[in-house]
Amino acid sequence: MKKIINTSKAPAPIGPYNQAVLKGAMLFTSGQIALHPETGELITSTIEAETEQVMENMKAVLAEANMTFEHVLKTSIFISDMGNFAAINEVYARYFNEATAPARETVEVANLPKYVNVEIAMIASL
């Protein structure tokens, strides 16, 4: 049976989905964007600040499932401009141990929800 994971420490879903679903030991997260969970404000002043907010939102979702970034097996990063890759990667790297970092894909897309610059989703396991 699947368990729905939602936390008030990350932005609430705005459609027919949940922040994450836990099935057995596997956690599948929805993509997170840089919405501040308390104010609902988009954090887009810099690509670094935007990426940090995304990662903090993801950290909150993982914590609600009693996990950390060490439990992440795979990430999917969607960016609107590949020119931002280095800056996004620099912030992203702060959240992982390079020796045990997850598998990852980074894809440039034409657009993202609310016209943000980065969205990240993860798969994790206990």
From TrEMBL:
Record-given protein name: 2-iminobutanoate/2-iminopropanoate deaminase
Originating species: Marinirhabdus gelatinilytica
GO cellular component terms, semicolon-separated: cytosol
Protein family according to the UniProt entry: Belongs to the RutC family.
Database matches in InterPro entries: RidA, RutC-like_sf, YjgF/YER057c/UK114
GO molecular function, one term: deaminase activity
